[in-house]
UniProtKB/TrEMBL annotation:
It comes from Sesamum alatum. Residues 152-172 are annotated as: Disordered. This is Inter alpha-trypsin inhibitor, heavy chain 4. Residues 316-489 form the VWFA domain. Coiled coil: none annotated.
Length: 744
């Protein structure tokens, strides 16, 4: 998929040689990729927000301002070529609240590669940072604008003006300027009390406009709010950010400059908070006006601090790894490499075992083994010999075997590390069995960490298992990110220094609901975030208790304060929607699904129970009198009044992760390959849209494109083709046409 995307961009760059820029040698055409660029693993995947012209007919490629009158080109581009558009300006505004960043990017691009008398579709691709989630897209072109919104499934089916197919009117004319506004949220990475923000912002040379004196301007504004009132200490920054404002717990930085060339590095900003010790706070907030849940909101944050001398718990870990037929090739090799790296990080005082499974189980040892150098070497050889892809997927048996290996032990944290790419037909039963196991074995409570690979496993089942086991879940949706995701999740499990965490003096609060329902441990790799809803009066302080690696008791009093400048609901919405969706899958509660849908619409977070709707607004010119009419006739761009008439032109269904694909699992289809979606997602329109986007689809709805663009680095996940052909084709009635098999 990445190769297909890159081939399309490379074809587009070849077509750009047809564009004529005149005889003035001072006007240089866009620079092609250098040999160094081409030598990278994925040289043509987006490393910044990008807009492409979708070219099926190469004869339309030309300079809209200066035609070259080249000979007609016979033939078509199949699949279409992607020509990167020249960028005229870019600005970014980032607001960081505790561990969450909200990013808004405003950019301007020009369709510089299509003759003025012709038009084309345009496609937007945006790589995002850690756990990125699209919040909205707006596109402005002359006379029209496009925007996205979420709607419940009932509303999107019955909304006014909703169309499933339309005529091919919405293409973008050559020479048109597009103004694009993108919004998304992402997480900050945390290690040892240090927070790092990474946003892809590396623009290739070939998006630089051709011209003598075309001004180029970049602007980045960054606001950091710690939420604790503690001092923020900037450590490193990629761009020349200057501090413009500072008060306790809040700083504002600005980079605003005319540049000779666009940014060649990602936006990276690292900071710490002044506290060395474990600290935190509780923030209170009232629900938004339209929130269906009228209970008050709270959010509790516990930070590890930056004291590096603390001990961590001794580890007892059982790696439970899927070796079914679908794990063949690169998937299994990358998983083995990640497992080798994890084993190398164990110390002689740690205990471990490895269980491989498909329809059966294969154990490295009958019990936990000491992680000596010799034993690790034996395990490495055993894995190399026995990790052979084949067979089906049965998760319950190895999970039970792993749980039974743990006995009552002190100074250690028992950990089950489950890795799978498939769906099990008895997943709810597996959750029931795990719950009963934990109830019966009160002296031992293994933490369950789960890693889902690709899009055929049930990510909500894996999340539910992690919730039950007080662990964490992660997903390597892009198969190239297995080693990175495995490594970061294991680092989190390996750096626990505060366990069995409990919140006291909350007994008097009415209708208390806590997310997650089982409180995870605190590690050096991330802060602990616990949120919830309540009625009544919240105490002035909250006491947090836990156990340290030396088995001594730990407690800290957290101050409770009103969240004045921090959007608590907006910050926590994605986490709560994900946790509630796992519970809704498990309980099959209609009421819970409706609640999730309403939250999704309220906070613009894509969910399993909402649809993405693309809205088109035509700005209609009206004249108050004849004089105004005459002026309007003389000046095409003189619009005296506008009467927006928004209408739904595309409804995109099934935008979430889905609940696994049992058919693909049974047939051992490798993640990343095309496979039939589950019956509930087999809507004919989606099948048509997948043909339209073809090789450019993945996670969220356009499955492949999420995969493609996320390969730029291990932290990035693609954005824009969550909107499938919708925004991918902007005015993209043509996307709908191609769903019908029409040209375009």
């Amino acid at each position: 998929m990445a190769e297909d995307f890159q081939a399309a961009v490379e074809d587009g760059l070849r077509l750009s040689k047809r564009i004529y820029f005149g005889k003035d040698r001072a006007v240089a055409p866009p620079k092609p990729p250098t040999e160094m660029d081409r030598s990278s693993e994925h040289p043509f995947l987006p490393t910044s927000p990008m807009v492409y012209a979708v070219i099926s007919n190469p004869s339309i490629v030309d300079n809209p301002d200066m035609p070259s009158y080249q000979p007609y080109v016979h033939g078509k581009c199949d699949p279409p070529a992607l020509m990167p558009l020249q960028m005229n300006g870019i600005s970014m505004e980032v607001e960081c609240y505790i561990d969450t960043a909200f990013v808004t990017v405003n950019g301007s691009w020009r369709v510089h590669c299509v003759m003025g008398s012709r038009s084309c579709d345009c496609r937007i691709a945006v790589p995002m940072g850690e756990q990125g989630s699209i919040l909205g897209v707006e596109v402005e072109i002359p006379r029209k604008s496009y925007s996205t919104q979420l709607a419940t499934m009932d509303e999107s089916d019955t909304g006014p003006g909703t169309k499933r197919h339309a005529s091919g009117k919405g293409k973008i004319d050559g020479g048109t300027n597009l103004s694009v506004k993108l919004k998304w949220s992402q997480k900050l990475m945390c290690h040892g009390g240090q927070f790092t923000l990474n946003i892809p912002f590396k623009f290739p040379e070939y998006v630089t406009p051709a011209g003598k004196k075309i001004p180029k301007h970049e602007k980045i504004q960054l606001t950091v709010n710690s939420g604790l009132g503690t001092e923020i200490l900037c450590k490193t920054t990629s761009h020349l950010l200057k501090e413009r404002y500072r008060q306790a717990g809040k700083s504002v930085f600005l980079y605003d400059s005319d540049v000779l060339s666009w940014s060649s590095s990602d936006v990276s900003f690292t900071y710490t908070m002044s506290s060395n010790d474990t600290s935190g706070a509780v923030l209170l907030s009232s629900p938004p006006l339209l929130d269906v849940d009228r209970r008050e909101m709270f959010s509790c944050y516990l930070f590890p601090g930056n004291k590096q001398s603390r001990k961590v718990f001794r580890r007892e870990v059982v790696f439970v790894v899927d070796i079914s037929g679908s794990m063949k090739g690169k998937l299994l090799e990358d998983t083995k490499n990640a497992l080798f790296a994890a084993l190398a990080k164990l110390g002689p005082e740690d205990l471990f075992n490895v269980i491989a499974f498909n329809g059966e189980t294969y154990l490295f040892a009958s019990s936990l083994e000491q992680a000596t150098a010799a034993t690790i070497e034996n395990a490495t050889q055993w894995i190399s010999l026995n990790f052979l892809a084949g067979g089906g997927t049965n998760i319950l048996l190895p999970l039970n075997q792993a749980i039974e290996m743990f006995t009552d032990s002190r100074n250690s944290i028992p950990i089950i590390f489950l890795v799978t790419d498939g769906t099990d037909k008895d997943e709810r039963h597996i959750c029931d069995v795990v719950k009963s196991q934990f109830t019966e074995r009160k002296n031992v409570f293994p933490r369950i960490y789960t890693l889902g690979i690709g899009m055929f496993c049930n990510h909500y089942f894996l999340r539910k298992l992690a919730i039950l086991g007080r662990g964490h879940y992660d997903a390597a949706r892009d198969v190239d990110s297995i080693e990175a995701c495995f490594g970061s999740l294991f680092a989190r499990a390996s750096s626990i220094f505060l366990a069995n965490i409990a919140f006291e003096n909350l007994d008097q609060i009415d209708e208390l609901e806590v997310f997650p329902s089982e409180i995870p441990d605190l590690s050096y790799e991330s802060p602990l975030v616990v949120s919830g809803r309540y009625r009544g009066t919240f105490p002035e302080t909250v006491k947090v208790k836990g156990v340290l690696p030396d088995m001594s008791n730990f407690s800290v009093d957290l101050s409770v304060q009103e969240a004045k400048d921090i959007p608590v609901g907006k910050m926590l919405a994605k986490q709560e929607i994900d946790l509630l969706t796992a519970e809704a899958w498990y309980s099959d509660s209609k009421e819970l699904k409706e609640k999730i849908a309403n939250m999704s619409v309220q906070y613009s977070i894509i969910s399993e129970y909402t649809n993405v709707v693309l809205l088109e607004t035509e700005r209609v010119v009206t004249t108050a009198d004849s004089a105004v009419g005459r002026r309007a006739s003389n000046k095409v761009n003189d619009i005296s009044a506008e009467a927006p008439k928004p209408r739904n032109i595309l409804v995109l269904r099934h935008n979430g992760l889905g609940f696994g694909n049992l058919t693909a699992t049974d047939e051992n289809i490798v993640p990343g390959s095309s496979a039939p979606r589950p019956p509930e997602a087999g809507d004919a329109y989606i099948k048509g849209a997948s043909r339209c986007c073809g090789w450019l689809c993945n996670h969220r709805c356009c499955w492949c494109c999420m995969n493609v663009c996320s390969k730029m680095n291990n932290e990035c996940a693609n954005l824009m083709t969550q909107l499938c052909g919708a925004l991918a084709c902007l005015g993209c009635y043509s996307c709908c046409d191609s769903c019908n098999g029409h040209e375009g």
